[in-house]
Each structure stands twice: as C-alpha cells, then as structure tokens.
Design a protein that fits this description.
Pectate Lyase C-like; rod-shaped; 7 helices
Length: 551
C-alpha cells in the first residue's frame, strides 16, 4: 500500500511540474505566461500547450494578451473584460458562458468553433472573421465591429443591439431566431445566406448588397436600406414595414406573403422580380421604376405617387384600391382578373396596356394619353376627362356610370360592349369602328362623330342633343336613339314618361315641356331647367349636381 501511495504522489508531482496543468490557471499564472511576450511581441501564445484543453473560471480581465491562440479548447465561465488582443485565434474550440466587456481585438479569427451564452458588450472587434462556426445565445451590445466577416456559420438566438458593424460580409450563413436592433450595418454584403424567424428593427443597412439569399418568417421594421442592391433573393412570409428602400435596386427576386406597409420605395428600381401575395399598402412609390416584373394576388393600395414608370410587367388576381398616380407612364403592361377601386390617373401615359377580366369602380383618368389598350371587363363610375384614346380595342366590356368628357377617341374598335347610364360630353370620335354596341339610358351632348361607323348599335332611352344630317338622324332613330330635344319633347307628349335612372347631363332642358316625365333616380348634372316647364316632373332621388332652375 505504501508503494502505491508513493506512485500517485510521484505522478501528481510529475504532471504539475511538466506545465500540463490539472486545473485552470490563476490570473497570476496567466500574467506569468504573458511575460514570454516581453521578449518577443510576435510570439503567439498557445494556452492549450501551457494550461491544457480546458479553461474554467479564468480571469483574463484587464490584461494585454497580445497574440493568442485557443486551439482545441473548452473555455467556460471566463472573463475577457477590458482585455486587449493584438490578434486572437479561436480554432476547434468551445466558449461557453463567458464575457467580453470593453474588450479590444485588433484582429480576430474564429474557425470551426462554438460559442454559447457569450456576452460581447461595449467592445471593439476589428478585422474579425468567423467561419464554419456555431454561435447561439450570443449578445452583442454597444459594440464596434468594422469589416466583420461571417462565412459558413450557424447563428441562433443572437441579440445585436446599439452596435456599429460597418462593411461587414455575411457568406453562406444562417441567422435564426435572432434580433438586431438600433444597429448600423451600412455597406454590408450578404451572400448565399438565410435569415429565418428573426427581427431587424430600427437599423441601417445603407448601401447594402444582398444576393442569393433567403428571408423567411422574419420582420424588418424601421430599416434603412436606401441605395442598396438586392438581387437573386427570396423572401417568404415576412414583413418589411416602415422601412426605407429609396434609390435601391431590386432585381431577379421572389417575394411571397410579404407585407411592405408604409415602406419607402421612392426612386427605386425593380426588375425581373415576382411578388406573390405581397401587400404594398401605404407605400411611398414616387419615382419608382418597375420592369419585367409580375404581381399576383397582391394589394396595391392606399398610396399617392408620381413619376412612376411600369413596363413589360403583369398584375394578376390583385387589388388596386385608393391609388393616385400622377405624371406616370405604364407601357406594355397587363392587368388580369384584378379588382380596381378608387383609382385616379392624371397627366400620365398608358401605352400598349392590356386589361382583361378587370372589375373596376370609381376610376378617374384625366389629362392622360391612352394608346393601343385592350380592355375587357366590368367597370362602373368611370370618369375620363381631357384625355386621348388612340387605337384602343374594347371587347366584351360592360361600362356603367361612365363620364367621357372633353376627350379625343380615334382609330378605336368597339366589339360586344354594353354602356349603361353614361354621359358623353364634347368629345371627338374619329375613324372608329363600332360593332355590337348597346347603349342604355345614356346621353350625348356636344360631340363630334367624324368618320365613326356606329352600325350594329342598339340604343335604349339614349338621348342625342347634337345636330346630325337627316340620314344620320334617321339611322340613329332606327337604332332606338332619341335624336334631338324636340323629339324628346314629342316622346313625352305622346305619353312616354318613364326615364327613371337615366344619365342626361349637361343639357339645356329649359325650352321643352317635361310634363309628367319620370326622372326618379336619374343623373341630371349640369343641366338647365325651367321651373315653368317642369310641370309634374318627378325628380325624386335624382342627382342634380351643378344644375340650375330658371323661371
């Protein structure tokens, strides 16, 4: 037994004296080890060689550590607070439950390592590269990390707040279940990476470049991405809200189930991109250029913008609502199976635009050039004013409550169109072809029909006040039109009183006897009536906006 005890004592003495420590070093022992650098500052200290592969509860705080390598080590519950590293290499190592407060690293390299439950606070991480590593539960607060490079890493449950990470580069990196807020990431490059289940709020990514990456189930709120390039990137089930992407470029991207509420896309460029179920409500789109882009099941709602250009793009099964466009141009674009409500287009150009199976209501187009459009669908409460429509094709179209005012329509083909309760005032119709047109309860006043063929047209309770040749008047009469106010007066006198729900506007009725005419629910805007000629006319629920009643 005595010999056995002696053997263990000798073994313990041997390992203690050999420099392979059985326990983690004290701070004093670390300081003694650092004295090696007093002779040569270029020496890289290998802590594993001196103290073994596990450091627990080691206090490195306040030390100038110079050039250090942790290779194949486990470091736990240790403090690097206020430490200074000329260079730090962490390789094939694990760092758990440790802190870096007010730490300065002039050059760092982390490779094939793991970090868990690590705090980096008010520190400077300069020229740091992290690759092929896994970081989780790491908190980076009030830290400066310029030129940070992340390559082929897995990051989860990361918190970055109030930090500056300028000109960083993320490559082939996964960021999951993390939060970045109040942080400056300007000039960052993100390539072949994925962000999932994460939140980025009130941060700057100015002049960023994001490519071949994916954003999933994440939220970007209050992010400044102005002047950035985003390409070959996919976004799924995420929010990019109250953010700034002005003067940015977005191309060859795919976005599905994305909210872009209150986001600034002014003077941005979108090319070759697909938006699926994306919400652009209340976005800022002034100066936006869209080319070769598709929108499907999207909401383009609640915005007012100017200088927008759209070309070679398609919008399908989408909603366009409460939108105002000024000084804009839409060319070679198509809308199919869309719902349009409360749309205003002014001082703009619509060129080679196709609208198929469109359902629209409350649309106003003013001072706009419409060239070579194809229109099919069901539209109501439409105002077209001081505009030009050239080489249009209107097919299988239903229009009601149309107000066509002071406009020029030429070289247009009309086929299978029904117009109900509409008004045409001081327009010019030149060289148009009309076939299978039905106009019901409508009126024409002050129009010029030069060279327009209106054969195969059926009129019902539709009134013309223009002066025509006898042949033209006879032809219109055979089609069912009421030609001239004198014929309208004769019709009433003969006992035809029912003109309820018609649209007879901008007409001087003051010189004809209206007798017992029924104008209940009619649109009678801008008319002149004589009280002496009204007699027992029924104007119940009629729209008399702008009309006058003389004695």
């Amino acid at each position: 037994m005595g010999n056995l005890i002696s053997f263990f004592l000798i073994a313990i003495l041997f390992f203690t004296s050999s420099g392979c420590y059985g326990a983690s070093p004290t701070k004093k022992e670390v300081i003694e080890f650092l004295k090696l650098q007093n002779k040569d500052r270029n020496i890289v200290l290998d802590f594993k060689e001196r103290f073994g592969d596990r450091l627990t509860n080691v206090d490195f705080s306040g030390l100038d550590l110079g050039k250090v390598t942790f290779d194949g080590m486990v470091i736990e519950n240790s403090s690097f607070d206020r430490a200074i590293f000329t260079s730090l290499t962490i390789k094939n190592s694990v760092i758990n439950n440790s802190t870096f407060y007010n730490t300065i690293i002039y050059k760092g390299h982390v490779i094939s390592s793991q970090m868990d439950d690590v705090y980096i606070v008010e520190s400077d991480l300069n020229n740091t590269q992290i690759e092929k590593s896994e970081l989780k539960n790491v908190k980076i607060l009030k830290t400066h990390a310029p030129s940070l490079v992340l390559n082929d890493n897995k990051l989860s449950n990361i918190l970055i707040r109030n930090s500056d990470i300028l000109e960083a580069k993320f490559e082939s990196t996964l960021l999951a279940e993390s939060e970045i807020s109040e942080t400056n990431l300007s000039n960052i490059k993100i390539e072949d990476s994925k962000i999932t289940d994460s939140q980025l709020t009130i941060s700057k990514l100015v002049n960023a470049e994001i490519s071949r990456s994916t954003l999933v189930d994440s939220s970007l709120h209050g992010i400044e991405l102005s002047g950035s390039r985003i390409h070959d990137t996919e976004v799924f089930s995420s929010e990019i809200t109250n953010s700034d992407l002005h003067q940015s470029r977005l191309y060859n991207c795919y976005l599905e189930k994305v909210s872009m509420l209150n986001t600034d896309l002014s003077y941005a460029s979108v090319e070759g991109t697909s938006f699926i179920k994306t919400d652009f409500s209340s976005a800022f789109l002034e100066g936006l250029h869209i080319g070769n882009t598709t929108f499907s099941e999207c909401c383009l709602c609640n915005f007012s913008s100017q200088n927008i250009t759209i070309d070679s793009s398609a919008i399908t099964r989408s909603s366009i609502s409460n939108v105002k466009l000024y000084d804009s141009e839409i060319a070679d674009a198509s809308l199919k199976d869309c719902i349009i409500t409360n749309l205003i287009i002014s001082n703009s150009g619509l060129l080679d635009t196709v609208l198929l199976d469109v359902n629209g209501k409350s649309i106003a187009i003013k001072h706009t050039q419409i060239d070579s459009p194809l229109l099919q669908g069901d539209l109501s409460d439409i105002t077209i004013e001081n505009s030009r429509i050239v080489k249009a094709s209107l097919r299988n179209l239903k229009l009601q409550l149309l107000q066509l005012l002071h406009s020029h329509i030429s070289e247009t083909q009309v086929l299978g169109v029904t117009i109900y309760k509409s008004h045409f005032f001081t327009n010019t119709f030149i060289d148009n072809s009309v076939n299978n047109l039905t106009i019901v309860k409508s009126s024409f006043s002050g129009n010029d029909f030069s060279g327009t063929n209106m054969e195969n047209t059926l009129f019902t309770k539709t009134l013309f006040t223009e002066k025509f040749t006898e042949d033209t008047s006879s032809q219109l009469d055979k089609m069912g039109a009421v030609v001239g106010l004198s014929n309208f007066e004769k019709l009433i006198a003969s006992g035809t009183y029912d003109f309820a729900d018609v649209n007879y506007s901008n007409i001087d009725f003051s010189k004809i006897a209206l007798g017992k005419v029924n104008f209940r629910g009619a649109t009678l805007r801008g008319n002149i009536f004589s009280k002496n000629k009204l007699h027992n006319a029924d104007l119940t629920e009629a729209d008399l906006e702008g009309s006058t009643f003389n004695r």
